[in-house]
Specification:
Elements (H helix, E strand, L loop, with lengths): L12 H13 L6 E4 L12 E7 L13 H12 L3 E7 L6 H6 L7 E5 L6 E2 L4 E10 L20 E3 L4 H8 L3 H10 L15 H10 L4 E5 H10 L4 E5 L15 E8 L4 H13 L1 H10 L10
Parallel strand pairs: 2-3, 7-8
Antiparallel strand pairs: 1-3, 4-10, 5-10, 6-8, 6-9, 6-10
Protein name: MoxJ protein
GO biological process, one term: methanol catabolic process
Keywords: Signal
């Protein structure tokens, strides 16, 4: 799940902060649960795993439990000998920890960044990176944020508040790109609502030639790159980006699951299941076209 909270290093600092203001005044919608596979009966005594899930977080979480994290969580639940029960919300996943996990409507959130101090986290189950996306026939093919190719790039599709947007500010491309960036969400104001550029929109803009470049976390767009009728090039961004003051802007991230701080037993059980489910998780990531990195790379 993406776009979760304003302290998450990768996940869209500015946009999440605006969304949080809206969340304070919004009515929290009740969660609803369902199980994967056949319906449960009153005679079913199998333990369940209640999984926080959003209907509006494609490609990670979506109705039918066909999202990347939905599939990974199903594999992990099965490795635990539990039945996966997805507790759904129609709100963006940035609110999952606060509005679902903390309120005890579900017990585990997938797709958090390693080091998220709001929760107890599992060991990482994969690592990936931010990437540049261009058309294969594109004239400008940057390999890092200092590449001279940026001189020939004007329109850049990127998520609000992301490390990609932050780096556009650092290389002097933010202001010139702002009007185009706002057009990607129909010039909607973030006032009193959460506004974000959909991942598939980033890819369609590049494929159509409307954007010269897309910047995104690879797992957010890999599915759409794979499905694109136009051949696209995906370049892993080196993890050496910095702000003007020298502070590092991470481009590589490890994914973990999170449970409530007092649930060390579930944390340990999930760690064991993640080890057991490694082959299934690897197959899911491969099928989704996600580029993974070696641990600590």
């Amino acid at each position: 799940m993406r776009y979760r909270h304003m302290n998450n290093r990768r996940r869209y600092v500015a946009a999440s902060a605006l969304g949080a203001l809206f969340a304070m005044s919004a009515t929290v919608q009740p969660a609803r649960s369902d199980t994967t596979g056949s319906a449960s009966s009153g005679q079913d005594t199998q333990k369940t795993l209640r999984i926080c899930a959003s209907t509006k977080q494609a490609p990670f979480s979506e109705p039918g439990a066909t999202g990347i994290e939905n599939k990974i969580m199903t594999a992990v639940a099965e490795a635990m000998g539990r039945k996966p029960v997805f507790v759904w919300t129609d709100r963006p996943a940035i609110y999952a920890v606060r509005d679902q996990l903390y309120k005890n409507t579900c017990d585990v959130v997938a797709g958090l960044d390693e080091g998220d101090d709001r929760v107890l986290t599992t060991k990482p189950y994969y690592r990936s990176s931010y990437v540049f996306i261009t058309r294969e026939d594109g004239k400008a093919q940057p390999k890092d944020w200092k590449d001279p190719a940026f001189e020939h790039i004007s329109k850049i599709a990127v998520a609000f508040g992301s490390p990609g947007e932050l780096m556009l500010r650092q290389i002097g491309k933010y202001e010139d790109n702002l009007s185009y960036q706002q057009s990607l969400v129909g010039f909607k104001s973030p006032r009193n609502q959460y506004v974000q550029v959909p991942s598939d929109k980033i890819i369609s803009e590049v494929a159509s030639g409307n954007a010269d470049l897309g910047v995104a976390f690879d797992p957010e767009v890999a599915r759409y790159v794979k499905a694109s009728p136009v051949k696209l090039r995906v370049t892993v961004i080196p993890d050496n980006a910095t702000r003007s003051d020298g502070q590092k802007v991470p481009m590589h991230y490890s994914e973990v699951m999170g449970v409530r701080r007092d649930d060390a037993a579930l944390q340990a059980e999930l760690d064991g299941a993640l080890e057991k489910a490694k082959p299934q998780i690897a197959n899911i990531l491969k099928d989704e076209n996600i580029q993974t990195l070696a641990p600590n790379s």
